[in-house]
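Course assignment 3, question 2. Fill in each field.
Student: A.L.
Task: Predict the tertiary structure for the chain below.
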Amino acid sequence: METPDNRQQLKAGNLKVTPQRLAILTLLGKINAHPDADELYFELRKTEDNVSRATVYRVLDALVENSIVRKLEFGDGRARYEMRTSASHHDHLICIDCGKVEEFFNEEIESLQVSIAKKFDFKLERHVHQLFGICQDCLNK
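Answer field:
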C-alpha cells in the first residue's frame, strides 16, 4: 500500500511522483529482504501491468542517486536494494553458500569505528560493514 511518506520522499528528492516510483517504493517497504532489480520487476508484474524491466532499473537508479534507496553489493554480482528509511543503521552477515542475508547492529563495532577514525584524524561519513561466511543451515547440510 502506498504511503504518504513515499510521496514525501520522492518530493524531497526532487523526483516527480509517478505510479512506477510509488509502486517500487511501496514494494521495497513491504519486502523483508534485499531484492535485486529483476526480483522487484517480477513481483511488480503481478500487480502492475504497465511496468517494464527498463523502467524498474531507471527508477532504482534515480532512487539511489537521490538517497531514497540504498544499493548493496553482496559479492554475488547482483546489486540489491533496501529502503534507507525502513530501519535504523545496520550491517550484514552474508552466507556465501545460499546467499542468506542477516541484518545486525552492534554498538561495540560502531564505537570501534569511531575510535579508529579519530585515531587517524579521519571524519567518518558512512560505512558499509559486511561479513561473509556460511550460515548454520548450510553448515548442517
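Instructor remarks: The first helix runs from residue 4 to 12. Strands lie at 69-73, 79-83, 91-95, 101-104, 130-133.
Grade: pending
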